[in-house]
Amino acid sequence: MLPVAWCVLWKDNACCTANTSTEAHQDQSYLYNFNWNHCGVMPEKCKQHFIQDTCLYECSPNLGPWIDQADTSWRRERILNVPLCKEDCELWWEDCQDAITCKENWHKGWNWTSGTNRCPRGFMCQPFKYVFPRPADLCEKIWSNSYKYTMEHRGSGRCIQMWFDPANGNPNVAVAKYYAQNGRDASPTPRAVLLLLLPAALLFLL
Asked: Folate receptor-like domain: from which residue to which, for each copy (predicted)?
């Protein structure tokens, strides 16, 4: 079991209990009865991203703008299209590219006859980098578009960070406030892009 560290980022304002934090770090916890090691042991550097993903989902109070109703037997709400910072998504992919899985969408389609998730018949275990060729494929497809890959960077105030230093405050507070005020589909256009759209003659006036 990994040390109970990552959910601590939200200890000052969390939507989860200490017990939930502990269970989030188990290879197979009662939270979802989901087994990360369905195609062999998941490397620790990869697993830490899935633990952090669970901590963010269970503990963060800053996902309100992206909560949707869910019509499933095991939950009534879900998150949808949470704009994940570019660095967080790409690091997740980088650390997991050599891990092994048999499915692109982990939300559904498993064989649960044993009480835990197993690969369905006919699904082959293969490295993440073949199942998810790009970082965006991993972040967007693995949980049915719970996350959205963005070009926004950490500290921009426009994307959710899975990882941050709590000593410097929670950067996701400002992000949630921005999207709550402007709509969760708000997509700020960088100044550089605006300049490219201007006629050449107007650039001389700037």
From this structure: 7-161
Tokens of 187: 């997509």
Whether 143 contacts 70, CB under 8 Å: no
Report whether 15 contacts 58 (CB < 8 A): yes
Closest CA to 106 of 50, 56, 40, 149: 50
Quote the distance between the C-alpha of residue 48 and its chain's center.
12
CB atoms within 10 A of CB 152: 20
Q: What predicted TM-score, i.e. pTM, was given to this entire model?
A: 0.81
Q: Which segments in the chain show pLDDT lower than 70?
A: 1-6, 17-32, 72-75, 184, 186-206
- Of 9, 15, 39, 42, residue with least CA distance to 27: 42
